[in-house]
Amino acid sequence: MLVEYGVRTGHQVFDRTESRTISQLHSFPAEKSPPLVYLTGQKNITLSKSEIKTLQEYLLNKQGMLFGDNGGSQHFHNQFFAMMRQVLPQVEPVKVPLDDVIHRIPYSLPFLPYVAPHGGKDAWGWKVDGRWVCYYHPGDIGDAWTDDHSGVKPEIYEACYQLGTNVIFYAHAEYSKWLMAKHKK
Predict the structure, then answer these.
(1) pTM attached to this predicted model
(2) SS3 at position 82
(3) Please, which residues bridge with residue 124 across strands?
(4) Where are the alpha helices (DSSP H) in the chain?
């Protein structure tokens, strides 16, 4: 997906992704944090109090964004929502409508693509001060990004690439706005 994002937007990207633990997000200075963290899975999500605090700090104080992708079970769906209740207890998740900016720029999506609707057929988000801090995809979007696209039809994996591009683009745009505002002060 990262390579596709670079091709589709012309933005410079690394040729490989970096894997980090939640605890490692703490070591990034505020103005050098990754704008987006992608989290996927199928099983339990267990965070320590320190990891909850680090993720909360990353989302709220470092202007990061979490892209959650249900990799294969209703259990993961429940675990992800429970995790977010711990991280942002004051923020209620809402369905992300298709006419939201995150579904329109740079690609206007006519439907929410998914590989398998493990967590339903709606995208969910957590918004703070008008900014999406977390976007949750219910249907294994990461499978469409594999080399063989997990056998889904071309129109589905293309729409999945478009959605991934939109979410990454949104996270980078919001992070850039925040950096520019900080530097103007």
Answers:
(1) 0.94
(2) helix
(3) 95, 136
(4) 2-9, 22-25, 49-60, 74-87, 141-144, 154-184
